[in-house]
């Protein structure tokens, strides 16, 4: 793979991670979409914290995921609820996982990235937040169900 293609892939992966963080932050703080997206783009994309350089993110994908997750939240949450056990609706799920499902749901309902790519990318995001747990497997199962509902023609 060329350096340019790899760089674009890494920027898209970073944008997905940042979208999950932004959605989490919005839910936790009550911040607006505009405030959070500007903060991330101005202060996190490519920033250096305690000697560690943050990845550059694809701002177009980042904004689209955050905006679409907010605009389609009711639809995405209903899809996630149908994938979850009845006793565990999305409202009872860990807020980080809820943000993962919402960002992934935004990309799945947009319909331009193959569902398997979306699932793999967001399973990797879950691993970044939960490196020791079974959350990545849980995310894989829920997103597979959501993808089959959102894009049945892809399966």
Automatic annotation (TrEMBL):
Assigned GO CC terms: cytosol
Pfam families per the UniProt record, alphabetical: NusB (PF01029)
Biological processes per GO annotation: DNA-templated transcription termination; transcription antitermination
The UniProt record lists the keyword Membrane: no
InterPro entries named in the record: NusB-like_sf, NusB_fam, NusB_RsmB_TIM44
One annotated GO molecular function: RNA binding
Keyword Phosphoprotein annotated: no
Keywords: RNA-binding, Transcription, Transcription antitermination, Transcription regulation
Physiological role: Involved in transcription antitermination. Required for transcription of ribosomal RNA (rRNA) genes. Binds specifically to the boxA antiterminator sequence of the ribosomal RNA (rrn) operons.
Family of this protein: Belongs to the NusB family.
Protein name: Transcription antitermination protein NusB
Species: Brevirhabdus pacifica
């Amino acid at each position: 793979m060329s350096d340019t293609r790899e760089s674009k892939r890494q920027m898209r992966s970073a944008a997905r991670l940042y979208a999950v963080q932004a959605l989490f932050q919005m839910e936790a703080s009550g911040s607006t979409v505009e405030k959070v997206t500007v903060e991330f783009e101005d202060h996190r994309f490519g920033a250096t914290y305690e000697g560690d350089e943050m990845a550059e993110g694809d701002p177009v994908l980042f904004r689209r995921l955050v905006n679409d997750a907010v605009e389609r939240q009711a639809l995405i949450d209903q899809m996630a609820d149908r994938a979850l056990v009845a006793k565990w609706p999305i409202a009872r799920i860990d807020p980080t996982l809820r943000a993962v499902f919402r960002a992934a749901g935004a990309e799945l309902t947009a319909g331009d990235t193959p569902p398997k790519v979306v699932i793999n990318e967001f399973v990797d995001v879950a691993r970044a937040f939960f490196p020791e747990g079974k959350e990545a497997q849980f995310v894989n199962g829920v997103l597979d169900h959501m993808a089959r509902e959102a894009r049945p023609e892809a399966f």
